[in-house]
Amino acid sequence: MDCFAMLRKTTLVIGALTVFERHVKLSTGNTILAAHDRDSRSDEMGVQVSTAAWIYEASIVIRNARQPAAFSAIRTSFEGCDSFFAERARAERDFPAFLESIGFTSQRQEGALLIDGGDIDIITNWLIRLFDTLGPFVEAGGVLEIRDEEGEQMTFCYNGEQMDIEFSE
């Protein structure tokens, strides 16, 4: 089973256990329910779903005025969790420092921060939770495309209010 198929299976299983659900569009046009339980503090959200993946394209803009709220939302989302992201969120002083500490690259541009790449190595549900949490703060049109060693891709798409995940092969 490739890593994105495993992610699809994982999100379906988690979806049955949570109250916050969202539609995920598959390349086939089918829709499944994916879940990101914002209140869950269980280790299940940290399940590894990939062993070799990388960022292929990233263009996520967060205005300077929204960055403190975005960073606060991340801290809240991971509060009480035992994860790398939670540890880094507690340790860093601001949003750009947090991004750098977790391996993402960004640039300042005209009143905003552009997340334009990074090193992920593995995909976990913690990573998905992180980018889902950023949904309300990302400018519409933001995208983060991740590909695995088998050529499948997962794209996080932002509409200015939330993140949706699209899978394609």
UniProtKB/TrEMBL annotation:
The lineage of its organism: Bacteria, Pseudomonadati, Pseudomonadota, Betaproteobacteria, Burkholderiales. It comes from the Bacteria. This is Uncharacterized protein. It comes from Massilia violaceinigra.
